[in-house]
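go over my protein:
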Amino acid sequence: EFINADLLEYCQQQRLTFTRSRPYRKNDNCYVEQKNYTMVRRHVGYQRLAGQQQLAFVNELYKHLRLYANYFQPLMKLKHKERHGSQVKKTYDMAQTPYQRLLQSPYLSASSKRRLKAEYARLNPAELKRQIERLQEQLLKWASETRPRRLYRRPESTWTNNNFVFGKPGR
């Protein structure tokens, strides 16, 4: 499994324990992958992106997505589950944005709550959505321009009979 060296170094400097999952919870990865789908794949896509310009666009997209998701996208949190024989009844909390949940939290300081409220007051959800869509369109345009194409056919072999060598357009 790949470990990000920069993240590992940061965790060591901050004296944070770096683990791949919680103790005795070997199935945590599915929750991370679910967030990868909802936040990364759904908004960025599955295409291959390369280059500093595309990286800058993805970072800009994440900047807007963070604000849009945390301030304007409500989530329903699971309160508890009850098992009745083979059926499980799930009870959910009222849908709220992460911003609203933070404001209700007793663990957040008053100064942090004021900072969040000030940031929220500056945001325009329609403008954020337009910026997100503009950046997504540009990324899709780049991805379609750099799609690999077949250059030549490999010679027939005993293992396969339909292999192609792929390359970038313009080679």
The two ends are 34 Å apart (CA to CA). Confidence is low (pLDDT under 50) at residues 163-168. The longest strand covers residues 78-84. The chain has six helices and four strands.
